[in-house]
Write a structure and sequence with these properties.
Chain A is an alpha+beta fold. Chain A is built from 10 helices and 9 strands. Chain C has about 325 residues and is of the alpha/beta class. Chain C folds into 2 domains: about 180 residues, Rossmann fold (3-Layer(aba) Sandwich); about 120 residues, 3-Layer(aba) Sandwich (Rossmann fold), CATH 3.40.50.1220. Chain C contains 9 helices and 18 strands. Chain C is elongated and about 60 Å long. Classes of the chains: A alpha+beta (about 400), B alpha/beta (about 250), C alpha/beta (about 325).
C-alpha cells in the first residue's frame, strides 16, 4: 500500500496494529461485496456487528464508555482504511462516532453518556446527526427546526432535516433545533430523539448517483414529544454542532486519503498488467505522469493528516487547520479517482473496479461536512481576517 | 487449561525478495515483518481451545531480539494472556538450537498443551516444534490439520500423501499446526489497547550450539519465457504436439 | 570412510518412492566419503522384508529389517527410538530421510535424541570437509538457501521428487532387528487411516499434476480436471487456495505457499490466475501448461505453453486429445 515517505516509521506500534486490523477487515469483508452493494443501492448493514466488535465506533472516545480509547491518529487511520473500502461505509462510522456518539459525550450528562455510549459502541444503537435542512445546508444558522419547552420540562419538536446519513437505520437522532421561538443561532440546542417517537418520520432519499452504499434520508418532525432528559444539557449555540463537524471533518481528511490510495493502487496494478502496443501501459509517459501526480498528492495529504492528528492529540489544533486538511485531501482525492478512472480506460466504467465508484462517492464527500467552497472561505478568513461569507 | 504457543516473526509472505549485500541474508529494506502464518494459526487454535474450555491461560513465547516484542503483543491483542521473550541477538537457522532454548523455558511451565506452527515461512524447515517435544519427552503430533482437546485428551488428523491418519493422545502434549485448521482472528482495537497492559517478560535465551548456518542465498533461476500457443479448442492439437515432441511429457 | 544411515520409508508392505531417492542420496554420500556403507532401516508389517532387495538396487549395503504387526501404521516413537539407538550404537556420518509426512516427524525427533544438527527439505547434499553443504528452497520456494551443517551424524531430509532415484546395485545384506521400543505402545495412537482418492498418485509422487482454480466457476466443474487427470493415467489432482478456502476441494489438495509444494514433470494449471501464493508451490515443475480465459493472467508468465480460452471448453477437448495420443502408444 502506498507509503512513499515511509510514514509507517512515524506511527507507533499500536497505530500500525489498528490500521492493519481495519485494513484486513476491509479486505476480507468489505471489498468482496461493496461493488454489488453500490450498484444495488444498499448499505451493507450486516457488517455493522463486525465493525462494532472490531471497535470502530467512537474509537477515540474513552474506554470507560465501552470505547476503544484510541488516539486521534489511530482514529484517522481507521477512517482511512474504511474509506479505502467505500466512502459510504466510512460515512456510517463517521456519523456513528463523530456525529452521534461525540455530541452525547461532549454535551450530554453523565447519565446520558452511560445510557447511550456503550450501546452505540457495541452497535446495538445506531445514531444519526440532524443538522442540515433542505433550505439550510452551508448556512445551518438559518435552520427553522424549532423545539418548544413545555411547562412540565418536556419539549415539542417541529421541523425537518435533509441528507441525513443513517437516517432510516438509526434508533436515535441527535437533532439540532432552535428553541422557544428564538430565531437566532444562539438558541440552538441538541436533543437525543428516539426515531420511533410519534411524529418522527424518516424517508430514504432515492435516485442517488453517489454514496449509493449508504442510507441517506429526509427526517420529518411533526409535533414530536420529547422527554426532559432528551436535551443535551451542555449544548448551546451553533458552536455545539460545529464542534461535532470538526471531529467528523478530521476523520474525513484521512478517509479521502484511503479512497485515493485505493484508486492509485488499482490504477498502478492495472498499468503494469495491461498491455497495449506490445508494452504495459505503465511504461508510457502519459500514464507515468498520471501516476506520479497521484503519488505526489497522496503523499502530501498523508503528511498533512498525520501532522494534524499529532496536533489534535496534543490539544493544540484549530478548526481552520481541519478545514485545510478536509478541503485539500478531498479535492486531491476527487482528482486521483478521476485520473485513475481514465487510466483504466474502458474497464474503468465497470462496477467491478473501484475508480468510478470512488469518483462518484467523493463528489458527496466534496459537498458534505462543509463544501469545498465553504472551507475555502474559512481559510480565506483565517488568512486575511476578513469574512467573505456574505 | 494452560496452553503455550511458540511463535516467530517472519517476513510478509507476499514479499518479492532480494538477496542482501552479504549474499547470505535477504535484503530487509522495505520488507514488512509480521507473525508467521502457521504460528498465527497456532495462536488462534489456542484461543479457541481456551474459549471452549471456559477458563485457562494462553502464554506466547518467541525467541529473538527486541523486535519480536511487537509480534508477541500482536498475539496478546488477539487474546493471549501473557508473553515471554527469549532474548537473543539473532534467530539462528538451526532449529535444534532454538528448540533447546524453548525447552529450557517451557520445562517448568506446567503446560497442558504446547502448540507450534508446522513450520516457519522463512526457514520452511519444520524442526523446532517436534524437536522441542522430544527434548521435553512429551507426545507430539506433527502437522495436525484438525485438533480436538477435551478432558485431558486430544485427537488430531494428520495429512499423509494420498491419505490421512487420525491419532489420539493424552495431555500434556505438543502439537504442530498445519493450515486449514482455523482462520486467525484479527485483533480488535480494544484488544490492541489491552495488550499494552498485559505482562511481557524478557529473559536471555539459552540457545543451543548453532551448527546449521546459512552460507549463501540465491533467487531461484527464472523460468525461460513461454508462449501462448493459441486460443480456445483450436489450440489443443498444437499443444498436444508440443507436449509430445518438445516437452516430451506425453 | 564413513557409513550412512537411511530411513527407507514404506507404507503397509510397499516402499514409497522417496525411499529410493533417500537411498540414492545416502549412496552418493557414502561414496563421497571414501566408500562407506549404506545401512537402510526398513520398518513395516510382516511382508515388508520382501522389499529389502529393491533397496539394494539403489545402493544399500545393509538393510535393517524390522517387521511387526503394529508397524502397519506409522509408529513414530518406535521408529525414532530404533533409528536413534542404531545411530548411538554405530557411528554414522549422516542420516538420510525423505521430507515426507513421516520424515518431517521423524527427523526432528532424531535431532533432539542424538543432539545432531538437521537440515530439512534439501534438494542437494554434498560433503565439504567435515561439514555437509546442502541446498534448501526456503521462504516458500522463493529463495534457495545454501546451508553448512557441522557435526556428525548430520541429519538430512530430502525433498521428495527433487533428486531422482538412480541405480547403484549392491547385494544388500539383510539384518533383522527388533524395535527399540514397543511399536504398539506409542503415546500417539493411530486410530484410523483414511484413504484418499483411489487410484491416483499423491501430489508428491505424481509425474503429472492437473490443478484447478477459480476459473472453473463451480465445484462441479472439477469433474473436468479429474477427467483430464484420468486421461493422462498417472496424474494427481491439485487445487488453488482460492478453491480450497471455498470448500470446493480439501485443504490437503492445496498447492501453494502454505499448502503442498510440488515439482512434477508436467503441471497443467486450469482456470488459475497465477497468484504469487500459488506459484510458490509449483514454479519448479519441469513443464507448465496454463489454460485461462484472461490473457493478462500472471500464470502465462511462468507457463511454457498457454492456451487462452474458456476452460470449460478447452479442457474436455484436451482430455479427448490426450486420450487419443495415449492410445497410440
Amino acid at each position: 500500500m502506498l507509503d512513499f515517505f515511509n510514514i509507517d516509521s512515524q506511527l507507533s506500534e499500536e497505530e500500525r496494529a489498528v490500521r492493519d486490523s481495519v485494513r484486513r477487515f476491509v479486505d476480507e469483508r468489505v471489498l468482496p461485496i461493496i461493488g454489488k452493494c453500490y450498484v444495488e443501492g444498499r448499505f451493507p448493514k450486516e457488517l455493522v456487528p463486525e465493525m462494532a466488535a472490531l471497535g470502530v465506533f467512537g474509537a477515540n472516545l474513552p474506554e470507560e464508555y465501552g470505547c476503544a480509547g484510541l488516539n486521534n491518529v489511530a482514529y484517522g487511520l481507521i477512517m482511512q482504511e474504511l474509506e479505502r473500502g467505500d466512502s459510504g461505509v466510512r460515512s456510517f462510522a463517521s456519523v456513528q462516532g463523530a456525529l452521534a456518539m461525540y455530541p452525547i459525550y461532549a454535551f450530554g450528562s453523565e447519565e446520558q453518556r452511560r445510557a447511550w455510549l456503550p450501546k452505540m459502541a457495541r452497535g446495538d444503537v445506531i445514531g444519526c446527526f440532524g443538522l442540515t435542512e433542505a433550505d439550510f445546508g452551508s448556512n445551518p444558522a438559518g435552520m427553522i427546526t424549532m423545539a418548544h419547552e413545555q411547562s412540565d420540562g418536556t419539549w415539542l419538536l417541529n421541523g425537518g432535516k435533509m441528507w441525513i446519513t443513517n437516517g432510516s437505520t438509526a434508533q436515535i437522532s441527535v437533532v439540532w433545533a432552535k428553541t422557544n421561538g428564538d430565531k437566532s443561532e444562539r438558541s440552538i440546542r441538541g436533543f437525543i430523539v428516539p426515531t420511533n417517537s410519534k411524529g418522527f418520520k424518516a424517508r430514504d432519499q432515492k435516485g442517488k448517483l453517489s454514496l449509493r452504499a449508504s442510507d441517506t434520508s429526509e427526517l420529518v418532525f411533526e409535533e414530536v414529544h420529547l422527554p426532559n432528559d432528551s436535551l443535551l444539557p451542555k449544548s448551546g449555540g451553533l458552536k455545539s454542532p460545529l464542534m461535532c463537524l470538526t471531529q467528523a471533518r478530521f476523520g474525513i481528511s484521512w478517509g479521502a486519503i484511503g479512497a485515493a490510495m485505493a484508486c492509485y493502487e488499482e490504477a498502478l496494478s492495472y498499468s503494469k498488467n495491461r498491455v497495449m502496443f506490445d508494452r504495459p501501459i505503465g511504461s508510457f509517459q502519459l500514464q507515468q505522469a498520471r501516476l506520479a501526480d497521484m503519488l505526489t498528492e497522496i503523499t502530501k495529504a498523508q503528511l498533512v493528516s498525520l501532522h494534524l492528528g499529532r496536533l489534535k492529540d496534543a490539544g493544540t489544533y484549530t478548526p481552520q487547520q481541519v478545514s485545510l486538511a478536509k478541503r485539500n485531501n478531498v479535492d486531491m482525492a476527487t482528482d486521483v479517482a478521476r485520473e485513475a478512472r481514465r487510466l483504466l480506460g474502458a474497464v474503468g466504467i465497470l462496477a467491478e473496479y473501484g475508480a468510478m465508484r470512488h469518483m462518484a462517492n467523493l463528489e458527496s464527500v466534496y459537498t458534505y461536512e462543509g463544501t469545498h467552497d465553504v472551507h475555502t472561505l474559512i481559510l480565506g478568513q483565517a488568512a486575511t481576517g476578513m469574512s467573505a461569507f456574505q | 487449561m494452560k496452553i503455550a504457543v511458540c511463535i516467530k516473526r517472519t517476513p510478509d509472505s507476499e514479499t518479492r525478495f532480494r538477496i542482501g549485500a552479504s549474499g547470505s541474508a535477504i535484503d530487509e529494506a522495505g520488507v514488512k515483518f509480521d507473525m508467521d502464518d502457521f504460528a498465527s494459526y497456532a495462536v488462534e487454535v489456542a484461543l479457541q481451545i481456551k474459549e471452549k474450555a471456559g477458563a485457562g491461560e494462553v502464554v506466547v513465547l518467541a525467541l529473538g531480539p527486541d523486535n519480536v516484542q511487537e509480534t508477541l503483543r500482536k498475539a496478546m491483542s488477539m487474546g493471549a494472556d501473557r508473553a515471554i521473550q527469549l532474548k537473543a541477538d539473532a534467530v539462528p537457522f538451526d532449529g535444534l538450537a532454538i528448540a533447546k532454548a524453548l525447552a529450557a523455558e517451557l520445562k517448568a511451565g506446567g503446560f497442558d498443551l504446547l502448540l507450534f506452527g508446522k513450520h516457519a515461512f522463512d526457514t520452511s524447515a519444520g524442526v523446532v516444534g517436534t524437536a522441542t517435544a522430544e527434548l521435553l519427552d512429551l507426545p507430539c503430533v506433527t502437522a495436525a490439520s484438525k485438533l480436538e482437546i477435551a478432558n485431558g485428551k486430544g485427537s488430531a488428523r494428520r495429512e499423509l500423501e494420498g491419505a490421512a491418519e487420525m491419532v489420539e493422545f493424552v495431555l500434556p502434549a505438543v502439537v504442530t499446526i498445519d493450515e486449514g485448521i482455523a482462520r486467525p482472528r484479527y485483533p480488535s482495537l480494544k484488544g490492541i489497547m489491552a495488550a499494552k497492559k498485559k505482562p511481557l517478560e524478557s529473559k536471555p535465551a539459552q540457545l543451543g550450539a548453532v551448527r546449521v548456518a546459512v552460507k549463501g542465498m540465491a533467487l531461484p533461476p527464472d523460468r525461460p519465457a513461454g508462449r501462448i500457443i493459441g486460443e480456445g479448442t483450436a489450440a489443443v492439437p498444437e499443444l498436444v504436439k508440443l507436449l509430445q515432441t518438445e516437452a516430451k511429457v506425453l | 570412510m564413513a557409513n550412512i544411515l537411511v530411513f527407507a520409508e514404506s507404507r503397509g508392505t510397499d516402499l514409497r518412492k522417496v525411499a529410493g531417492e533417500a537411498v540414492t542420496v545416502a549412496r552418493r554420500l557414502a561414496d563421497a566419503s571414501g566408500g562407506g556403507e549404506v545401512h537402510a532401516l526398513l520398518a513395516g508389517p510382516p511382508g515388508i522384508a520382501q522389499k529389502a532387495e529393491a533397496l539394494g538396487k539403489f545402493g544399500a549395503d545393509v538393510v535393517l529389517v524390522m517387521e511387526h504387526p503394529a508397524l502397519a501404521t506409522f509408529a513414530r516413537e518406535a521408529i525414532a527410538a530404533t533409528l536413534a539407538a542404531r545411530a548411538k550404537a554405530s557411528s554414522y556420518r549422516a542420516i538420510v530421510l525423505g521430507f515426507s509426512a513421516q520424515g518431517r516427524d521423524l527427523g526432528p525427533r532424531l535431532a533432539a535424541r542424538l543432539d545432531a544438527p538437521i537440515a530439512s527439505d534439501v534438494i542437494d547434499v554434498q560433503i565439504a570437509g567435515d561439514a555437509l553443504t546442502v541446498k534448501h528452497p526456503a521462504y516458500a520456494n522463493k529463495v534457495v538457501v545454501t546451508l553448512t551443517v557441522t557435526g556428525s551424524p548430520a541429519i538430512v531430509s530430502i525433498r521428495p521428487a527433487a533428486i531422482t532415484a538412480s541405480e547403484s546395485l549392491r547385494s544388500a545384506r539383510v539384518e533383522t532387528i527388533q524395535p527399540a521400543t514397543d511399536p504398539a505402545a506409542s503415546r500417539v495412537k493411530v486410530t484410523q487411516v483414511v484413504e484418499g482418492a483411489k487410484g491416483r498418485p499423491d501430489l508428491a509422487d505424481a509425474p503429472v499434476i492437473i490443478a484447478g482454480g477459480r476459473g472453473l466457476k463451480a465445484p462441479e466443474n472439477f469433474k473436468l480436471v479429474e477427467e483430464l487427470a484420468d486421461a493422462f493415467g498417472n496424474a494427481a489432482v491439485g487445487a488453488t487456495r482460492a478453491v480450497t478456502d471455498e470448500g470446493w476441494r480439501p485443504h490437503a489438495d492445496q498447492i501453494g505457499q502454505t499448502g503442498r509444494q510440488v515439482s512434477p514433470q508436467l503441471y497443467v494449471a486450469v482456470g488459475i490466475s497465477g497468484a504469487i501464493q500459488h506459484l510458490a508451490g509449483m514454479r519448479t515443475s519441469k513443464t507448465i501448461v496454463a489454460i485461462n480465459k484472461d490473457k493478462e493472467a500472471p500464470i502465462f508468465k511462468v507457463a511454457d505453453y498457454g492456451i487462452v480460452g474458456d476452460v470449460l471448453e478447452v479442457v474436455p477437448a484436451l482430455t479427448s486429445a490426450v486420450r487419443e495420443a495415449k492410445k497410440g502408444h
